[in-house]
Amino acid sequence: MERLYVCESGKKTELKEILEADPYAADSFARVGYKLRDGTMLEEEKDKVYLYISASGDFIKKADEKLKDVAKPVEGENAKRIIDKIKKEEEAAESGLGSIFG
């Protein structure tokens, strides 16, 4: 399951504290993995930060609860468009590394 969250840039520090808390726990964000991008990097709202997670439904429920005071889920076409941008950025980075080490 995929989930995209949006956070005000002013709360980015608070968001990072939640994401980096207890990295060795079985249900930590560090173990599941996440992508955090500034809105300007994605050509979206520059005063926003976007968090992308691909995880089990159970983890997403826990993430919703942990993040509720800092970030809100993005739904519908906006979520799909931004997730696609994040994935394309990752693919471009991976192919760039492949050409370096290929």
Walk me through the topology.
Elements lengths: L1 E7 L3 H9 L8 H4 L2 E4 L9 E7 L2 H11 L3 E4 L1 H26 L1
Antiparallel strand pairs: 1-3, 1-4, 2-3
Tell me what you see in this structure.
This protein is α+β, with helices and mostly antiparallel strands and 102 residues long. The protein has one domain: Alpha-Beta Plaits (2-Layer Sandwich), CATH 3.30.70. Helices cover 49% and strands 22% of the residues. It is built from four helices and four strands, in the order E-H-H-E-E-H-E-H. The chain has helices at residues 12-20, 29-32, 57-67, 76-101; strands at residues 2-8, 35-38, 48-54, 71-74. Strands 2-3-1-4 form a four-stranded antiparallel sheet, sandwiched between helices. The radius of gyration is 14 Å and the shape is globular. 17% of the residues are buried.
